[in-house]
Design goal:
The complex is a heterodimer of chains A (339) and B (291). Chain A is mainly α and 339 residues long. Chain A has helices at residues 2-17, 19-36, 40-63, 73-90, 95-117, 123-142, 144-147, 172-192, 195-205, 207-212, 217-243, 253-266, 273-287, 295-309, 332-338, and strands spanning 160-161, 164-165. The chains are: A mainly alpha (339), B mainly alpha (291).
């Protein structure tokens, strides 16, 4: 184990040293990737990885940074997807109008659910969110006049960008996904590195102490939850317009668990973790297709083994960079060294 | 009509109660939501189906299958959860582990038995009784009776025996009970055995009632039984029983008067409403945060 950690440490040192170059390289690779990969099937999987990375990032804000376990994030995913799909199929709105509204509606639902439930703690919060997810699914299943019930909504139009329909074939959806991922990552990292982010981490580490230090814990938790619901809703809207068809069974408890597993497997409380988790867990069932029915057994085994040997996630708990202090504040030991 | 629905609801509710008790026992001791419980329930039903197929008698078959299901619970604890406790992992690691285990069990069931719905022989088929306008199967009474006796037995084990005392001691403070000479790990294993065995019985009874078995049968029942356990106050046995009955009743009544598709949501709506006003459930003890 220590050897392993050392290797990880070296990797993270390397990453920190060449951070800018690596970032540029990653950007270039992601930009030209669709031209290198010919198979539309692979592109589709990559786009799905992007969607789940956004879901993972948004849940990470709640679970990884604030320490509240939500077992119902599929609900916000579904609300965003349904709201955007209904707006575009019934009211003829384009993706760029309906998706933000869908995300806002999801965020609003997050606020409504968060206000009363975030006063609960620990397991009770998980249970309420889980129940909420089931209730939302039942509403979509039964509200026939609006959601078309178990038949689902079909023929959701693809996003149109200045007259061009974005599809997987012309790589438009890939770049749209990329834009969504970048904006989400930017927003989440801005939240996490702000004063609010510090308050959230304080709540995660010790809620009581954070409250004593004057952090408005409930308000902060509700904020994190709402923001998280908003981004999940956006991912849902994108998903609906990409797949063109949604039904209540796309958003079950299993989906919530998949999102949570992505966060945990990748590493809770890291920005890169959800990407890795999503890449692993979304591509796994696809890569294991040859094992057919055994793949979900393997999926379960991976979760069990990960929790046993590396519960902090693949990228979790390896942070070597010192904590960033606000400007003008100097660490005591560096101040001494200067003298 | 109403009377008949109430009887149907109570029958379903007592089954939920049997499953909910398993959640409650494990949660009480480990503060862990055991998400593999639903798949254990499905496992119990499948094993019963196989053993009853061998026709060496209905009752021995059920008893053996319940014992096997109980052993599965011990296995889950020993292989999946005990190493995590030894490492003093965070609670969420155990939670994810149980989710992983439920995936494994459920999909193995699917591979071995196929994912289609299979026929389960009718249990206790002694005809119907007519009470007023309601026609009630005798097996409903028998199921209710068996479940009630078992729940009583479980309550006695927890409240009246030495090992029950050990369970309650661990619930309060596992370190101190260890120092007092209680073998914490064996008691936890025993708890898993009790919970899984009762889930196995519940699975067998409900399969005999509906006469069907399928690998994903535990998912919805697991979630609802969990809702029932929380509703009554998780960790409190009689709370789980009341919770189970309330959920079973409301679900049946909702199916009759609101339409079948709402039945599944009712459990969770009740749960959310109760949690908002009484976060620790109907009979739960208020948790005090210690500094």
């Amino acid at each position: 184990m220590p050897k392993n950690n050392k290797a990880f440490g070296q990797v993270s040192l390397f990453v920190n040293k060449y951070r800018k170059i690596l970032l540029v390289a990653a950007l270039v690779v992601t930009l030209v990737l669709p031209f290198l990969v010919k198979s539309q099937y692979i592109i589709r999987i990559i786009v799905m990885i992007g969607v789940y990375a956004v879901l993972g990032l948004s849940l990470n804000l709640v679970t990884g940074y604030t320490g509240q376990v939500s077992l119902g994030h599929a609900a916000f995913f579904a609300i965003g997807a349904y709201a955007s799909a209904i707006l575009s199929t019934r009211y003829g709105m384009g993706f760029f109008g309906s998706a933000p509204i869908g995300a806002l509606i999801a965020g609003f639902c997050g606020l409504l659910l968060g206000l009363p439930t975030l006063r609960l703690s620990g397991s009770y919060l998980s249970i309420t969110t889980m129940g909420f997810c089931e209730v939302v699914r039942m509403i979509f299943l039964n509200w026939d006049s609006m959601t078309n019930g178990p038949m689902g909504i079909q023929k959701i139009p693809k996003p149109v960008f200045f007259g061009t329909t974005l599809t997987l074939g012309n790589k438009g959806l890939y770049y749209l996904m990329l834009a969504m991922v970048i904006v989400t990552t930017y927003c989440i990292s801005a939240i996490v590195n702000s004063k609010t982010g510090r308050a959230l981490k304080a709540i995660r580490d010790d809620e009581l102490a954070a409250g004593m230090m004057g952090v408005p814990t409930t308000r902060m938790k509700v904020f994190a939850f709402t923001a998280s619901a908003f981004f999940s809703g956006f991912a849902g809207a994108f998903y609906a317009h990409m797949i063109n068809y949604i039904d209540p069974n796309s958003f079950t408890f299993d989906t919530s668990i998949l999102i949570l597993s992505i966060v945990i497997l990748g590493g809770m409380g890291t920005l890169t973790g959800p990407f890795l988790g999503s890449a692993l867990l979304v591509s796994f069932p696809e890569a294991l297709r040859f094992m057919r029915e055994y793949r979900f057994v393997v999926y379960g085994l991976i979760l069990v083994i990960m929790m046993r040997y590396k519960p902090q996630g693949v990228l979790g708990g390896q942070k070597r960079t010192p904590y960033a202090l606000p400007k003008g504040v100097v660490r005591p030991e560096t101040a001494k060294a200067k003298e | 009509m109403l009377f008949q629905q109430i009887i149907n609801g109570l029958t379903l509710g007592i089954i939920y109660a049997l499953v909910a008790v398993g959640y409650s026992l494990v949660f009480g001791i480990l503060r862990l939501t055991n998400f593999s419980h639903g798949s254990v329930y499905a496992f119990g039903a499948h094993i019963s189906m196989v053993l009853i197929g061998y026709s060496f008698g209905m009752l021995p078959a059920i008893i053996v299958s319940v014992l096997i299901t109980g052993l599965l619970g011990i296995l889950i604890n020993k292989v999946g959860l005990e190493p995590l406790r030894k490492k003093k992992s965070k609670g969420i690691s155990s939670l994810i582990t149980t989710i992983g285990i439920s995936y494994i069990i459920q999909n193995l069931l699917m591979i071995i038995f196929g994912s289609e719905t299979k026929f389960f022989p009718k249990l206790f088929d002694y005809g119907n009784v007519t009470l007023g306008s309601a026609i009630i199967g005798v097996r409903q009474f028998i199921i209710f009776g068996i479940a009630l006796v078992l729940l009583g037995l479980l309550t006695y084990v927890v409240n009246g025996t030495k090992i029950g005392l050990a369970m309650r001691a661990i619930e309060q403070n596992s370190k101190a009970s260890n120092l007092m000479g209680i073998k914490v790990n064996s008691v936890i294993s025993f708890t898993f055995f009790l919970g899984s065995a009762s889930a196995g019985i519940a699975g067998t009874l409900i399969s005999g009632y509906y006469q069907m078995v399928y690998p994903t049968m535990g998912v919805m029942v697991g979630l609802k039984a969990f809702a029932a356990a929380v509703l009554g106050g998780i960790g409190v046995l009689h709370g789980s029983i009341v919770g189970g009955l309330v959920i079973g009743l409301s679900e049946t009544l909702a199916a009759t008067y609101l339409g079948g598709s709402y039945a599944d949501a009712v459990a969770f709506i009740i749960l959310i409403i109760v949690l908002l006003f009484r976060p620790s459930g109907l009979f739960g003890k208020q948790d005090i945060t210690k500094v």
